[in-house]
From TrEMBL:
InterPro entries registered for this protein in UniProt: DUF4395 (IPR025508), UCP030042 (IPR016942)
DUF4395 domain sequence ranges: 19-138
Transmembrane portions of the chain: 25-49, 82-103, 109-135
Protein name: DUF4395 domain-containing protein
Lineage of the species this protein comes from: Bacteria, Bacillati, Bacillota, Bacilli, Bacillales
UniProt key word Phosphoprotein: no
Keyword set, alphabetical order: Membrane, Transmembrane, Transmembrane helix
The keyword DNA-binding appears for this protein: no
Amino acid sequence: MSNFNESSYDCVNDFPLHWVRGNQLGILLSVVASVLTQQAWVLVIPLAVQLISRWAGIRYNIFVRIFSPIFPKSSRTESRELLRFNNLLAILMLAVALIAWLLQATVLMYTSLIILSTAVVAALFGFCMGCFMYFQWKQFKARRRT
């Protein structure tokens, strides 16, 4: 495992890209495991990780701790604001999938998982759908003010 000390997680506005990629990989592997095993309860794991990370901070994100060492250390960063927005989208998609599973709405469950997986795979390849959506939202709000 990489050397994660407390000071490396202190209140920063940007996070190294390898931490972001580690979280994304954890989400993707959880979704794939859930689909392959046909066990939707597995989705509770990434949902819990994302909720804890949102509430307590990235130092408690187990996906970052486990998977970020796989990626080369990066000097490129992602902003806290964009990460929080993307984190919220992931939480919403995972929650929709779990609620759909509980309601036996299989099509809705798989639709939300496809949306989430597509966004994560695109992000791993360098295109952030959540960032694009966030930019469009900010543009919409700015146009409404004028």
